[in-house]
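Example A, followed by Example B.
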Amino acid sequence: MSFPKGFLWGGDISANQCEGGWDEGGKSPNMTDYHAGGTVNSPRMATYIMPDGTYGKTPAMIENCNLPEGAKLAINPDEFYPNHKATDFYHHYKEDIAMFAELGFKAFNMTLSWARIFPKGIKAGINPEGVEFYHNVFKECLKYGIEPLVHLYKYDMPAFYIEELGGWKNRFLIEEFVEFGKASIDEFQEVTYWSTFNEINAAQFSILDSNNQKEVQRQYQVLHNQLVASAKVVKYLHDNYPNKKIGCMQAGIFTHALTCDPEDELANQKEMQKNFWYAGDVFVRGYYPSYAKHLWKELNITLDITEEDTKALKEGTVDFFEFSYYFSNCVTTHVDGQEATGNLNFMGKKNPYLKESDWGWAIDPKGLKFFLHEIYDRYQIPLMNCENGLGAFDTLEEDGTVHDQYRIDYMREHVKAMSEAIDEDVDLMGYTWWGCIDLVSAGTGEIRKRYGFIYVDVDDFGNGTYKRYKKDSFEYCKKVYTSNGKDID
């Protein structure tokens, strides 16, 4: 096992899934604050109110939602909103960070809540209480020698921008985000590692109806606007803080060809181009890939790309490439391919050689090694595996223990895969386990889909003490991290 000196071992959370305090400290509502809970078989819904006072629901989308004419986003008192309190990092951050330090964290991957920093847009000004909260979080991290790795955005659209501007489809939001990024970088001087967007390619796989050309057009324009916003923030940091580093992050949509049929290989190549390489090529290389024009023609879309956009993309390329990796799926042209299970089953077919998690996600550590090589061969810049983990049903025993050998097994095999890739000269700079403390699932709104090494005593409806407990995987993670990956057995 040969992880390099200074390897960034750590954990990862996001503001809207862990923080809570949705209406405290001057924060305004963000999009997910209007998302009611769901399950693997029951998608989350955003709630609204009509002019006559009646409430309704519409499928929850990451960046936006389709509201009926005259409707406004609203909190329905008969619904439960799991992100409102989440697992209450807002009030427990000192306790939680102390536990992260005990785990041996060298890095803490987290997001800022845009709605906590600028509750009503840039013109309305910065929120001092929000700024103070994050300064306190960073101070606590640095006290233990933990480097904050800060993402500006993860599924955290302030509802103000939906209501006033229509969200990311409006180009004006590019400059709003850039000003948010500049203000954050200037304010939080104690942060060395920054990232613009978390899972920026989520705009593509959040398309609810691929046959709706208007929706496809909107989501690809949303992604373009985000890529431009990202590039402008990257350039600002490079111009003003040359000793700091900044990246951008992709959801690791990784697929195998189901068979060795050349048609399957070609279909898989096309899926990887569309779902993963498309955005990555832009923020690493500074321009759209060669196949982009053909893809746009195939989708019957025309993007609004200005000369200024093209210049910004070229000038704002990242220092390191971040990605998530949880599972893989398969692609086939054969009609007998079995559908993948779980809430992301639209991404491919089931792999008959792999076991699955409680939520139907294929467990594929060998795929991680393959993926690391593919990414590094293409981009040749440092990589950061900033989301990897296993969501599972955990049981809190009467004595306060949680026996999660399945999580230990998952971590061991994925750490082994990373080590092998490093031995084969992949430049991997760090690894942060997703949901190092239990949090709300973005996809389903469940807390019972637990990822953490730390169990939080709360259920899907907010019932519980919110007390923290160490799972068996806590001690295992501590052993791995404090040995710099040498002791994984």
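Example B, a separate protein, is given below in the same form.
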Amino acid sequence: MFWESVIIAFNGLMANKLRAALTMLGMIIGVGAVIALVSIGMGTQKRVEQNLAYLGGTNIIIRPGAAAAPGSVRSAAGSVITLTARDAQAIADEVPGVARVAPELTGSYQLVYENRNWNTIVEGTTVDAVEIQDLTLASGCFFSDEDDAARAKVAVIGQTVANNLFGTESPVGQNIRIGSTQFIVSGVLASKGQTAGGGDLDDAVFVPLATAQDRLGGKTYVNLILAQMENLQVLDQTEEYITQLLRARHKLADGEADDFTVRNYAALVEKIKESTRSMTLYLGNVAAISLLVGGIGIMNIMLVSVTERTKEIGIRKALGATYANIMLQFLVEALVVSVTGGLIGILAGVLAAYGLASTGAVQTVISPEPILAAFGISLLIGLFFGIYPARKAALLAPIDALRYE
């Protein structure tokens, strides 16, 4: 009986192609919009998480200069000299719960290899930056603590730098000039990509901190300090310890403003992830409204169909069709319309998501969960909005139905 009803439903769709297409249009748009918008939301979430991966194991970042007051502009890190490598060492030695600390001194320099040159960011740092920033080597090795102590002229370069200076040639062991100083390339980083702050670790060079301070400008300060915690549960307490330690080291009087800024990035990362998850859910809910509109369209068409086929219903009842038989037939017809529209909508949504991703304007992620959810909702909508027309048809009295003109 069920499959017979399915065949009758498909025959009805084929007999009224335009009406069927217009009825399914709401479901197609609804399901397609849900899949496309949710894929955009998930793609945005993935891109944010990829960018935040730059922080690696970084939980706290300390920058020189006081935090900007509302409506004001914070001083550039390089224009305020308040943090030193000794501050970083003190944090590592004296603050409980700190696993690793990496001070950084950055600057823009021209790199030269033979007849090629490239302008990029050079970052002086310590070995702990490898773990904190989750750096991976494609070839060669990172510099050591001994290199830092000896102010060794060794450098680790990113993929973009390697491609532009060396092409297909292996950079490891080659000499490059940074500014006016010769360095030996000890390693090449694996591709890392864009950072949360808009930088690019592929287009960067890492050298020992002491080397950068002594041989690239004679600077004694650092631009920032990265800190990695052993236990995130005491992160707020650790942040307070760092603040108190630096205030004491910088001899700041009570009531005097901090000359540094401590940022809890672990909490920020969670807030950003929660925001992107909320955005994905919001986009899905907005698109789901069109599914509701599509369901109302199905109910309207099914009511029209019941009215048009009143005499047919009367004949079937006169021939012995029961309440359940009529109910099943019209419910199946509503389900066929909604499921067919849902399947076409899935195809349209997936194609739209791939089309948007191919333009490069947005990043999309196609996953089975929203597809299955959209299909399931279309099934439920067909069932829910088909009940009233089906019940109305099943309750028709045979005599009244046969008399209907």
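On Example B: The radius of gyration is 33 Å.
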